[in-house]
Specification:
The complex is a heterodimer of chains A (about 180) and B (about 180).
Chain A lengths: L6 E2 L23 H26 L9 H12 L17 H15 L4 H12 L14 H34 L9
Chain B lengths: L4 H22 L18 E3 L7 E3 H4 L4 E6 L4 H13 L7 E6 L3 H11 L5 E5 L3 H5 L4 E2 L1 E5 L5 E6 L4 H18 L2
Parallel strand pairs in B: 3-4, 4-5
Antiparallel strand pairs in B: 1-2, 3-7, 7-8
The chains are: A mainly alpha (about 180), B alpha/beta (about 180).
Chain lengths: ~180, ~180
Amino acid sequence: MTSMQHAPSSPRRTPGPSAFACPSIPWAPAFAGATKMCISLLVVLALALIANSALAQAIDPLPFRDHAEELRFQHLTSELRCLVCQDENLADSNADFARDIRHKVFELMQQGKNDAQIKQYLVDRYSDFVLYDPPVNHRTWLLWFGPLLILIAGGIVVVNTIRKRSRIAAPIASAPTDNGDDW
Amino acid sequence: MSRLLPFFAFVLLAALLGFGIWWNSAHDPTAVPSPLINKPAPAFALPMLNEPAKTVSKDSMLGKPYLVNVFASWCFACGEEHPVLMAESKNFGVPVIGYDYKDDPNDAKAWLAQHGDPYDMVIADTSGHTAIDFGVYGAPETFLIDGKGVIRYKRIGPLTPDVIAQQLKPAIAALQKEAP
């Protein structure tokens, strides 16, 4: 992979908090005032950060008709993948792109589309990849049934091993010269 | 034989792991295949960056193939792609439309003024709504659309000289062969 990567669509990134250094000189009473001021500044900064993250939680104040619609929206967006940040779903993602798609989902809901139609709308544009639940088709059968195949293969090996061992163990167990060491 | 079975199982798993590593290094695991290839491009009508009163639509572009290159002034990889486009865009033989994606028009104009304008025209999708119809999820992305308005090729990520020589130019040549 080169340094030339596909940039996620986050046009406006907020800069992270810059490094903040405080003079901490408890043994010098002359500077106590400055240190105290610095601590209160830190507290204010921390509060500002908390307020900011609380704001980030309420990213989409969408005008839902009722709570049921909101729940449906939450459920639907949690089943869809954010393509920019691929290990996040649409509901959780803070990416600008995810917000656009969330608004699109909301818009489609307002148009009276059902969940399947909304998912199909996104699959038509972004492929099955937007679905967290991959559909069963010829490209995904190994994904769906592979674990079952491995389980069956493992079961066959276990059954074979047990049969073989019992065949070997059987004459020994029936032998009268059992010295009791086995158990 | 049965003693070797665990060994074979191990070799099988190791081979699977090796295949996975090879696959992920040969392919970009974050690239999403576009389901829109060989499907009609979505209808669009977007204002031109320099003359917002004029709009460019899918209908107005019908009749000849063209390229749509999604870019933005905020997009880092677009800056890496830009010199390649500056060098190559006039050699494609088809018009190249810049698609300014989720960008402040003034930022985009300044960016093009600073780095050069490789496009035949630039359209602006400030909200990014039309881009959803195109299946765009970042920038840069490049679409090749034929005269009938069908998407024939899509590149996710920057165009590089290799990609242009091995994928884009052959795709354009194939279009031009079937055109007359």
